[in-house]
Structure formats: C-alpha cells, structure tokens
Amino acid sequence: MTPTPTPAPTLLLEAADLLPDPDGYALAYGSHATNTHQPTSDLDLLYTGRHPLDDAGLTALTAAVVALHHRHGLDLDEEVPYAVKLYATSDQTDRAAALAGFQTCWGTPPPTVRKTWFLSTDTFRLRLVFNVLTSPHVFLGGNITAYHRQVRTAERSAATLAQSLTTHHGPPTLQEAWTALWQAPDGRTGKDYLGYLVPPHLLSVLNRGLTDHHPTPTPQPSR
C-alpha cells in the first residue's frame, strides 16, 4: 500500500509567503492538514488581515494561489468561490468565531445548501471560517496573538453552539456536544452539515471549549 504523501514543506512555505497583510495570518486546512491528501489534492488556504482586499488585491491573491497549485501539480477546487473562501478580514474572523454565521438559524440544525448561490454568501463565509478555526489546520505564519485569541473564542463558541442544539437546559455533556455538532437529527454529516470530518479533533475542541466556557452571546437575527 502506497503511503499518503506528507505535504511538501516548500508548498506550505510558498503558501505562507502569499500572506497579503502582516497583521493577519495564514492557515492551511483540509486534507493537507490531516495528512489524508492524495498527490494532486488541492491545498485549502485561509488568509486573514486587518483590512479588506480590494478587487485588484483579491484577484492577485487568487491568481497567486492558482499558480501555486499549478507549480505543484495540484487540482483546483472551486466549488466554493475563491472570493468567498480565500480571505477574511479580522472583523469577519471575529464575527465568525462568535457564531455570526448561525444567527438566522440559531437553536436549530443549520441547513447547508450545496449550491453556488449559497456557497457565495457572507453567511457561508462566516460558517466556513468558524469551521476552519475549529477543525485541524496548520498555522503558516502571521499574527500569532490574533490567531490564538480567535481560535480560543471559536472553541468556546463551539460549546455554545452545541448547547443551543441540545434538547435540555444547562451545559451539555461532552458526548452530547460532540453528537450535536457531528450529525444533524436528519442524519446529515460532514460537508452536508457543519463540515466536521475528524472526530478526535472535534472532541478535543469541545473539551477545551466546555472547560473554558463563557457563554457566547446568542446571535440575533439580522433585521
């Protein structure tokens, strides 16, 4: 059996060099972060920064990431547009970590629509960023202070989200929290639900989140 290749250090170093704002940070997630990738698997990347990228900046970053894939012989996955998944401002990341992506469906299992119109929305961007912060990922460089703060917030928020999805009052058990985020009552899992694919990591996130739990303010529906 051929072993799964380890992500090439040069690939991750080149990805780190593309960080457009030194006040932000860069993360790699997905199969390259869990060592489950194939030789041509795409590299999932998230860049954050203090300021929004204008159209020219976002186009340049996207072109650089596409060129990186071509140089290393990797496939491209554009089911979620790069304009949505590649870059988030510090404010968007803070909002994502505080569960803003779930405000319209708070307390109910959130729907996931695998259609371009939904995958292009700000709501999906915020859910994706939240998932990245609470899923296996590799810190590639940048503002480590902001990174630690936002990950810690997201882990506490994961506990809050799980509590909103359980049927009783009070903090859920670790098993109840894990079940609530891993699988919807109708059986949806993975990309068809909250996107979690690595059970032990989610368990670890929730263990920390429940231990360090300060209730996240309940997201309010947009008016």
User: Segments where pLDDT lies below 50 for 5+ residues?
Assistant: none
What's the total helix number? Answer: 10
Quaternary structure type: single chain
Identify the overall geometry. Answer: globular
Termini distance? 55 Å
- What summary fits the major beta sheet? 4 strands, mixed
Strand content: 5-15%
- Mean of residue pLDDT values: 92
Q: Which structural category fits the helices and strands?
A: alpha+beta
As a whole number of angstroms, the C-alpha radius of gyration is: 17 Å
Which percent bin holds the helix content?
40-55%
- Strand arrangement in the largest pleated sheet: 3-2-1-4
Annotation keywords:
4-stranded mixed sheet, 223 residues, alpha+beta
Q: What does this entry look like structurally?
A:
α5 (90-97) crosses α7 and α8 (144-165) crosses α10 (199-211). The chain has helices at 9-16, 31-34, 55-71, 82-85, 90-97, 116-119, 122-133, 144-165, 174-182, 199-211, and strands spanning 25-29, 44-49, 87-89, 137-142. Strands 3-2-1-4 form a 4-stranded mixed β-sheet, with helices on both faces. The protein has a domain at 9-148. The model has no long low-confidence stretch (mean pLDDT 92). 35% of the residues are buried. The protein is of the alpha+beta class and 223 residues long.
Summed up:
The protein has ten helices and four strands, in the order αβαβααβαααβααα.
Fold topology:
Blueprint: H1 9-16, E1 25-29, H2 31-34, E2 44-49, H3 55-71, H4 82-85, E3 87-89, H5 90-97, H6 116-119, H7 122-133, E4 137-142, H8 144-165, H9 174-182, H10 199-211
Parallel strand pairs: 2-3
Antiparallel strand pairs: 1-2, 1-4
